[in-house]
Amino acid sequence: MSWILIVEQALNGLQFGLMLFLLAAGLTLVFGIMDMINLAHGSLYMLGAFLAATLVQATGSFAAGVLLAIPATAILGMLLEVSVLRTLYSRDHLSQVLATFALILIFNEAVRIVWGPDMPLPMPAALSGPVQLLPGMYYPAYRLLIIGVGAAVAALLYLLVARTRIGMLVRAGASNREMALAMGVNIPWLFTLLFGVGAGLCAVAGALLGPLLAVQVGMGENILILAFVVIVIGGIGSIRGALVGSLLVGIVDTIGRAFLPILFGLFFQPRVASAAGPAIASVLVYLLMAVVLYIKPQGLFPARG
Amino acid sequence: MTRYLLALAWTAAGLLPLPAQAADKVKIGFISTLSGPSAALGIDIRDAFLLSVKLNGGKLGGLPAEVIVGDDQFKPDVGRQLAEKNIKLDKVDFLTGFVFSNIMLASVPVAFENKVIYVSPNAAPSPLAGKQCNPYFFAASWPNDAYHEAAGQYATTKGYQAVYMLAPNYQAGKDSLEGFKRFYKGRVAGEVYTQLGQLDYSAELAQVRAAKPEAVYIFLPGGMGVNFIKQFVAAGLSKDIQLITPGFSSDQDIIRAVGDPMLGIFDAAHWALDLDNAANKKFVAEFEKEYKRLPTVYASQGYDTALLIDSAVREVKGRIENTEGVRMALKSAKFQSVRGPFRFNRNQYPIQNYYLRVVGKDSQGRLVNRTMGTIFKDRGDAYVQECPMK
User: Fold this and answer.
1) Which CATH architecture has domain B146-269?
2) Mutation for testing the B interface, residue in A133, A144, A257 having most B CBs under 10 Å
3) 3 state DSSP class of B137
4) Of B226, B234, B261, which has the smallest distance from its Cβ to A214's Cβ?
5) Are the C-beta atoms of residues A49 and A207 closer than 8 Å to each other?
């Protein structure tokens, strides 16, 4: 096992973690500030990817297609908030889960009707090969782009939340919603805007992951579960928690898949190792969550004191 | 009184054995996966089967054919219900169509219990080739591990000393790599089982790069394979490492989804677009004309299944109620398969050739599989000794 392999796996973990962050950021704000469980967050990720695939095809340019898909998904998200989700804020969590689960089914079928079961979204040709980072170390150019964009968006989001007036209102809402309302913050407007930002971030993740994975119906469900794990680990409502949680989950998942089978191979028979390695690796993320919850039941960075 | 006698005469006539007479039509129950993410395979089999019937003037073996198409929705229970409906209500003469082993295994016992013949256009699991071989089961495709064995043999012939293998962590995944290793004699550089349905292979690809194998063999059906191949090429691994797949993982449907990164992949299959025989040339040309796309191995199997049934019905001169006669006729397999030489083993699994194919461009610049040679000639399967049927 060489250090090149370790660096490469760390980059893989970073890339996966940053993409998870884009999803978890929107989810944690909606959950933390509006106290709303939105299972349909994954559907926005799917919609973002399908819109990006369509727009890339229509414009003939990857960058233009992706950049157009972000505001388009954000507008769709805001429309969804105004028309459906707004009425759910005052309901209990069970009603929210039921209603947004219904939304998942509706979105999946609607996408199937409009686009069919999947859409091609090819990688831009210039980025489809590997680049040499260090002597003897190659890394796919496209994954580097994802890391770059993910890091830039994370930094922007941090500035937005920590340094701007809107960010201040968001933080106020997250730590004490009633008090923020009493101080005259226009909460309905803030919620709609926030939801739009969350949807836009979903579109970034969906559009960037589309060429690596697949743009298909139901793509949001698997990743949504991990996004929930992230916000529970990070502390609900906290952007910083979402970032740390995402990177932790991304790295633990990648390292587990890469090195656990090797580690098991040192101690067990090959037959046992090849069976147990992948099995343990697939639950490692949930073990991490259990450990974090045992030590800090509110998550690593609780938004509310 | 006369009326009474007449009734008696009718009853007696009804009890007497009638001389065997040809039926007026042949009914086929066709159940396949036609919706959901895996629908493309079932659709290809169905389209090719119906094309074969159509080219035959809507007949099979001289009898007008009625094909009752059902969608199992990728669910074993739905497949079983449809099979029961086909057999008990529609009283079909043959059952066919299933793509996936698990759905087929849940559904075909209904056919076996009612002595209805099932001709498989795809799934051909090992148990039905060995101990549980069944007189009412005919595989017109290839045994489930045949492609893996052929790929393993190719790796041995080519002299590869280090092959890295990947498959999903479930029974079929493990069986496939066992099949590969049965004929691969070199060193196993790595044997990795990933999650079923996994879409991102970055961690595994980094391991592959570190292991520096000469070739990588993958059994990753459907979307998993699409993603793996795209990411394998994007990581730059295709320059130094030869990717080998089973035939269905680099067929026309996967080529459509992946595109140019497919170039240069080697695979093993029992059929290819460019196989040089009259039946195949007609099939490829007619399929493309009818459906405006190139056929896959699945399509070739659907087409062959119809040809096989056609030959059997013709052989028994339309007397399809004589199930034993139909069985014998099927077993003799007197038809021109698009795959070339074809006959049945005593377990009613095929004995046939397996070819080495490579993804390249045809004269029109389209990405297709081209035949490079024959890996196995007249190959049966590893389980036939365990089959008690004569």
Assistant:
1) 3-Layer(aba) Sandwich (3.40)
2) A257
3) strand
4) B226
5) yes
Rounded to the nearest integer, the mean pLDDT of chain B is 90
Q: Do A140 and B210 touch (CB under 8 A)?
A: no
The tokens for B126 are 């090992």
Helix H segments across chain A? 3-34, 41-59, 62-83, 93-115, 141-163, 165-175, 177-182, 187-209, 219-234, 239-267, 270-295
Q: Choose the mutation target among A1, A11, A12 for the interface with B, i.e. most B CBs under 10 Å.
A: A12
Average pLDDT over residues B66-75: 92
Annotate B159-192 with DSSP letters as a single string. Answer: T-SEEEEEEESSHHHHHHHHHHHHH--SEEEEEE
> Taking CA atoms, what residue in A is nearest to B193?
A278
CB pair distance less than 8 Å for A213 and B200? yes
Domain B26-142+275-351 sits in CATH at 3.40.50.2300
Instruction: Give which of A274, A284, A285 to mutate to test B binding, by max B Cβ within 10 Å.
Output: A274
Q: Contact, B267 vs B244, CB < 8 A?
A: yes
Query: Which tokens hold the place of B8?
Result: 């008696």
* Structure ipTM: 0.80
Question: How many Å apart are CA B27 and CA A30, to the nearest integer?
Answer: 58
How many beta carbons lie within 10 A of that of residue A138, not counting itself? 18
**Gyration radius (Cα) of chain B, Å:** 23
Q: How many CB atoms within 10 Å of residue A113?
A: 8
Residue B89 per-residue DSSP state: I
* Token pair recorded at residue A130: 């590997």
Amino acid at residue number B80: R
What are residue B259's phi and psi, to 5 degrees? 85, -145
> Could you tell me which residues are beta bridge partners of residue B217?
B165, B244
CA-angle at A98, arms to A95 and A99, nearest 5°: 85
pLDDT, position B19: 44
pLDDT at residue B17 is higher than 50: no
Binary contact (A12, B202; C-beta < 8 A): yes
Comparing CA positions, the residue from A29, A45, A27 lying closest to residue A222 is: A45
Q: How far is CA B75 from CA A102, A194, B33, B104, B107, in A?
A: 22, 40, 8, 10, 10
Q: Check residue B260 and give its pLDDT.
A: 85
Cβ neighbours, 10 Å, residue A269: 10
Residue B141 DSSP code: S
Percentage above 70 pLDDT, chain B: 94
Q: How far apart are CA A87 and CA A90, in angstroms?
A: 7
> Residue B136 pairs with which residues in a beta bridge?
none
| Among B193, B204, B236, beta carbon nearest to A138 | B236
Closest to A143 in 3D by CA, of A209, A223, A73, A241: A209
User: Nearest-CA residue of chain A relative to B227?
Assistant: A213
Q: What are the phi and psi torsion angles at B348 (to 5°)?
A: 65, 25
Evaluate whether A77 touches A196 at the Cβ level (below 8 Å).
Answer: yes
Measured distance CA(B156)–CA(B159) in Å, rounded: 5
Residues of chain B with CATH 3.40.50.2300: 26-142+275-351, 146-269
Please list every residue in chain A whose beta carbon sits closer than 8 Å to the beta carbon of residue B206. 5, 8-9, 12, 258
- pTM recorded for the entire structure: 0.81
